[in-house]
Design brief:
alpha+beta
C-alpha cells in the first residue's frame, strides 16, 4: 500500500477491508482470476473490478513487472 493509505496503517488486511476498493486483476473467467475471487466469494462478497486482464497480456505484464 502507498504511504498514507488507510490500509497501510493496519497490521493485517482482511477480505472485508479489501472489498471496499476496486481491483485491477485477472478476469474471473480465467483460472487465476477464479483463484483471486474465491476468498471474496467464500466471504459472500463480490469483487468490484475496475479493470480485468488475461494472464500473458501486455497489460498483465506491465502491472506485474515491479
Amino acid at each position: 500500500m502507498p504511504e498514507g493509505h488507510e490500509l497501510a496503517e493496519k497490521l493485517a488486511v482482511s477480505i472485508h477491508d479489501l472489498v471496499r476498493y476496486p481491483f485491477i486483476g485477472v478476469d474471473p473467467s480465467d483460472h487465476y482470476g477464479q483463484t483471486l475471487a474465491r476468498p471474496f466469494d467464500d466471504a459472500g462478497h463480490e469483487i468490484r473490478a475496475w479493470l480485468c486482464t488475461m494472464p500473458g497480456s501486455r497489460f498483465s505484464f506491465m502491472t506485474n513487472s515491479r
